Amino acid sequence: VHEPLLSEKDETTVDVREASPLPDDLTREELTLPAPSEPEIARHYTRLSQMNWAIDSGPYPLGSCTMKYNPKFTEDVAADPNAAIHPDRSARAAQGNLELQYRLQEFLGEIGGMDAVTLQPPAGAAGEFTGIAVAKAYHEHHGNDRSEVVIPASAHGTNFATAAMAGYDVVELPSGDDGRVDVEALEAAVGDDTAALMLTNPNTVGLFERDITEIAEIVHDAGGLLYYDGANLNALLGRGRPGDMGFDVMHYNVHKTFATPHGGGGPGAGPVGVVDELAEFLPAPRVRETEEGSGYEPFEPANTIGKVHGFGGNWLVLVKTYAYIARLGDEGLADAAAKAVLNANYLAERIDLDVPYDPFHHEFAATAGDRDAADVAKRMLDFGVHPPTTKWPEMVPEAMLTEPTEIEGQSSLDDLAEAFNLAYADTDDALDAAPSRTAAGRIDQVGAARDPRLSWQALDGE
Amino acid sequence: VHEPLLSEKDETTVDVREASPLPDDLTREELTLPAPSEPEIARHYTRLSQMNWAIDSGPYPLGSCTMKYNPKFTEDVAADPNAAIHPDRSARAAQGNLELQYRLQEFLGEIGGMDAVTLQPPAGAAGEFTGIAVAKAYHEHHGNDRSEVVIPASAHGTNFATAAMAGYDVVELPSGDDGRVDVEALEAAVGDDTAALMLTNPNTVGLFERDITEIAEIVHDAGGLLYYDGANLNALLGRGRPGDMGFDVMHYNVHKTFATPHGGGGPGAGPVGVVDELAEFLPAPRVRETEEGSGYEPFEPANTIGKVHGFGGNWLVLVKTYAYIARLGDEGLADAAAKAVLNANYLAERIDLDVPYDPFHHEFAATAGDRDAADVAKRMLDFGVHPPTTKWPEMVPEAMLTEPTEIEGQSSLDDLAEAFNLAYADTDDALDAAPSRTAAGRIDQVGAARDPRLSWQALDGE
Amino acid sequence: MYKRQERDIRAECSRIFARNDDLVEFLGRGHYGHYVPSVVDHLADRAEFLTSYTQYQPEISQGFLQALFEYQSMLVELTGLPVANCSMYDAATALGEAATLADRVRSTSGDVALVPEQLREGKRAVLENYCAGADLSVETYPMADGNADIDALADRAGDDTVMVYAENPTVRGCIEERLAAVGDLAADADALFVLGSDPVSLSVLQEPASVGADVVVGEAGALGLPTAYGMGLGLFACRDDFLRQVPGRLVGAGEDAAGDRAFTLTLQTREQHIRKERATSNICTNQAWVALRAAIHAATLGPDGLVDLANDCVREAAALADRLDEVKGAAAPVHDRHHVREFAVRVDQPAAAIAGDLEAEGFAVHAIGEHLLQVCVTDLNAGRTDGLVAAFEEVI
Amino acid sequence: MYKRQERDIRAECSRIFARNDDLVEFLGRGHYGHYVPSVVDHLADRAEFLTSYTQYQPEISQGFLQALFEYQSMLVELTGLPVANCSMYDAATALGEAATLADRVRSTSGDVALVPEQLREGKRAVLENYCAGADLSVETYPMADGNADIDALADRAGDDTVMVYAENPTVRGCIEERLAAVGDLAADADALFVLGSDPVSLSVLQEPASVGADVVVGEAGALGLPTAYGMGLGLFACRDDFLRQVPGRLVGAGEDAAGDRAFTLTLQTREQHIRKERATSNICTNQAWVALRAAIHAATLGPDGLVDLANDCVREAAALADRLDEVKGAAAPVHDRHHVREFAVRVDQPAAAIAGDLEAEGFAVHAIGEHLLQVCVTDLNAGRTDGLVAAFEEVI
């Protein structure tokens, strides 16, 4: 299976200066790009799409990345042309969009147990950056010049990168033997320099941080803030709220928690919720009801950090988020979380791999033991499923971090388990040769990185 | 590649009487059907779709069936919820739909050179039935009780079946040596009993009936009507109009001529155009401007044959037809026809098979000679294209009736030619074993017909 | 005709369609709108389905063939009959094809197709055209309080009868209470019993096979299609005996060269492209894609959802009739029967005028007689009945 | 929060969005709407694209990887720079990332990012937040009649400068006439020259590489996206030297086990999931699907269509400015430059009041100063300029 590059089908060069009303010194000379017909375009992208796995193809149990089915009707809601207005309209002329933003702020606040929400961050990592920037603004506003952010070793890479981007030093907190935060280590790590502790709960091996109340107390006593990474919020819905556990700031990953499509990498959305004390630092604008209560208006929080996106973030994604939450309601969200946990536990029970840490919730980190987790994953491709996240988190050797999510039925979980078990038990040769039933064979990623060819121009003459 | 039946994934039985507000003697006892979740449904149909060739997959050169690319925007036009009204609305409340119907009637009349058009027939064959019924009503109205319809041997099977459905005897007209209507044979065949001659022009081997004026004279002199089968109208656009050639009745195949999607078998639409003398017999209602000219109204032609569809036909398809014609305009339609002819001639030039009849227009009937055309076709599947229509028309031995249409570019025509040539030159064993690269191997159609299993219920216990 | 940009055509058509009045439709009479879940559009619109041709090369058409096989299977369950084709154009043409089938399989015994007195005009008109070619005449039998008048039918049916047609629900939404008697009468006359219905009603009403139906026709577009200005999906199912006389396409299961199950169009020797003037029908292009939509819609509902939807159609109709009955000058339902979705309303004033006044208030209903209206309620307009009742009170 | 049916939510949201006024928007300032051909939606909405995840298993993700590779290639052609990533969130965050790149590659020489005096507020605010973490300060350089004031910039740029940012077209739609001079100044200061633009403008304007741009950022959502209430697609391209310092994802061509060309995410050691706090950015989820849309849109236009579109943006802006200039009390364009899409208008009366009055007439324009409006015309609203001119005449 192979589809030529568009440039291999056709390249057309236009003499720009001939065509342009502009003086020659303001224009380029020519432009060379493919000029396919609509039928050629349709076939090109149709074929490409057929060379691509998706949640609509089958199981996609990427632990922590959380890939779940996206209800189709949310696409129709977001496609409403009335919603696709320019962001620079006056508030008076954009009451519909402002109302939806307001409603979603309210939904998210309620779900997270947070007092104020911004929808602006265009992805989870942007949400982290926003949250940490808000925390920083808070400390600075109160005259505290804190320099460190504490992050458990098992945390997402984004946590570390975010803290660094915000100008903080990172203090890495080793995991306890049970896979959770080691409270004593935490006590040792936090202090006057601690701006925040960033925590994922359930954590990245699916374990609930049982000592969360104590953890919150330790951080707060040191004058730090507690940051909730929303990556695993989907496991908690209807059973607990970060705000109620003592978290001060959090971000929501809408594609992980609220089934917005991931689009092969994005767009996402990473709204941030905070407790009252931090609300005045949130990005501008937020949306509130007008005083007369007859409409909605944007407003600038008193000590806003400014902006984290040129406009209001990834609007179309936010609309889908709203539609998803409205569809499920409290009851449906709680069901989704419960079923996600049930499915993870059922699947773990059915596979032959060990799962060192438990009781886990919506995901589990199995270990491939003396097999290479990446090889096992490649072999799973041959059995018609997408494999789990591999070799992460590092606390589990040859980890296969698995999250089937609530959407899989029993037969699909059984298929997944079978793929796990067949691949895990397969011969070394079979694993080395895997995948063998896919559009492309095993790709030499080291080679690709050694000699980067990042455009069709770079392939010319090959 | 295999996707289980929905019933193999799940079957759920509902106790209808328990649930129903109706008395038990008016209801069924139970209902047993699959009850999949939305994710399961999405995956089921996504996988099924991926097991299906389409014009968006690649070349689809089905001669006479005419399969061409359908511009995507026409789907959006047809999806307008404002257009999806109930057919029983008053005319006053349906002015938009009536206007579009009126405009399309006008477009089609102009394209065909016809004085009056009905949009009601829901497919080409239904158009034929309508046209022949109109012809019959015309004859009966004038006191002529004619019993025969003359049809060239090379015509579509629908022509014969239509004439029989309308209660006519079929007189089959053998083709002349040049593949066209034999004028002498025609003179011998028509007479007082002739209600109509049904003709496809260009005919089904792509030849233009050069003697059309003489043919028309012969039929008209005998008191018969000349029926134009619109299957190949796409070859004539911008170069000739059936009305100008002496045809009295015609149908339009909108998916063949105006690129409406064929939907794996339908829906289509088969509008019928007639000359003035026949307008009073068309199905009811048609649409006209109101006398004040401020709006549109349905009306019943004076001696209407009644109805050929419960309502106004396949509305969504008609909307796409309108949008397509509006997009291309006269110029674009003429271009499409010219390019279709050019493409057919280019392709014929590139293949190693003989093409006995020429000069052909938009399609040609190659002959596989001493190879079995159906086997060659199966082998072509392995080379990534859809094969042409095979073994028809019968006047060409082992015919491969090929119509690339205007949408293919040169590289795609070259791919097609290569598939033709590779398959045609392949070994008998390879042809027997073909196809070998498809989701299913060669299917035993004789066996399937011998032991018909037409539902999953019929498979139970297997 | 000058060439225009797609953007301009979209804008133009959008303007044209906006000229349809913004009405709440309480319209039915055999053509129904139910909410079509979004997933139906998204899946049926996949290019591999929408832009494919008839499955002449089954090896690369397994997906659509399987979907149509599943559609046929759903109809087999709903009708209790073992054979369902993979679509006709609409209910009216399916009825026409049933008549020509009757003519073929019962040709020695007569030339009359009996249909109920209360029947959609358009459906009857289509039937007449199909019957004309087969030299059949269409005649009616009377109805009694919205149901087939069994006694009158017994008097009428006889040696000249090749087909007896009944509908359940009837065009006025009434549930037939003595269908088995109709079936018996047809059998006694050696006529085919052709029953008209739709897949939503069939989810709860008596199984056609159990009342002796030989053929079931109807509007399967009640699933999967919006009202779409009358576009439809002809349902056609029948007994095994008629397998080789069925009009339209059939998908069957078979085997491929490797012995694996595979699907294919089958029994094609019935069809026009092979049998020409001796074909069972001239149908070629059918409504395959609409059948796909109906199958997807049915899957989203599942049997529970189908039964719930049908039951709601019964309950909502009864509830709305009760409310309209309270309006002074209106009486509903006219017929003392159980109803599905719709029912007739008797009004003191001229019905056409009232329908016009209701339209001015933003509601569309049928005027079906001098003093008869008809009102249809489904999940789509059930939330707007308050407005309709208020409008009735206003205009009567 | 109670659970609702999809149908009810669709109806509710439809009602909510209908509360946005029905305005003809002449709005731009860096965020543009062009007509997006229907085929873009149909193809990008294919579930295999829309519902896929990041391509961590390239063997079953070749389709999206190739599409992104083609997107990168298109940007390489448009910018003349050899490296383009496969998306950032939007123009503002891409600018922020450019600043942190400058900080990393030029960290020894200073801590100032120089930006034009005339710059979108929001873009600057985002840049400030990115700079804050890197201890950079954002400072402005003056503009002269809508272009960078080269002399003032020469005075300002120096050892403390790590980056000089310019836009072409500027936020007021002016085409910069001395970009090469800006590039020289930046080079002299050993600062990165970061140029902001968009793919439509780049189709005709000077190739960034030819004027010395080190990095190009901007809003690539001018292709493929409607205005979408500000949702965007961050364009990011740069010189080869910075390959291992690029933020965001890169798709590269490589080989599979059979030696066939295959695509994969590459140079991932730059990224947060491997490099953690030493990553080039914290970006993870990006705008891949929007990049796919932009690539499809560009393919539908082809180079001819792109150049035509850009040229129309130049012509329409000039024509509209001429017409508004004739309105008494208005003068346009304010700057004596060539414009793409948009231009400033000086009005005698207070701009905010006039913008409000225009809104009441159904037209949205920007008020950008006490007596300054800004008007943006593209293919989407070019057919409505008569109305805008008439409204100007009415309200002024």
From TrEMBL, chains C, D:
Q: What is the lineage of its organism?
A: Archaea, Methanobacteriati, Methanobacteriota, Stenosarchaea group, Halobacteria
Q: Which domain of life is it from?
A: Archaea
Q: What class of enzyme is it?
A: oxidoreductase
**Mind telling me what this protein is named?**
Glycine dehydrogenase subunit 1
Give the matching InterPro entries: GcvPA, GDC-P_N, PyrdxlP-dep_Trfase, PyrdxlP-dep_Trfase_major, PyrdxlP-dep_Trfase_small
In terms of Gene3D superfamilies, this protein maps to: Aspartate Aminotransferase, domain 1, Type I PLP-dependent aspartate aminotransferase-like (Major domain)
Pfam families from the entry?
GDC-P
GO MF assignments? glycine dehydrogenase (decarboxylating) activity
* Species whose genome carries this gene: Halorubrum lipolyticum DSM 21995
One GO BP annotation of this record: nucleoside metabolic process
* Glycine cleavage system P-protein N-terminal domain sequence ranges: 5-348
Keyword Oxidoreductase listed? The answer is yes
The UniProt keywords, alphabetically, are: Oxidoreductase
* SUPFAM superfamilies, alphabetized: PLP-dependent transferases
Query: What Enzyme Commission number(s) apply to this enzyme?
Result: 1.4.4.2
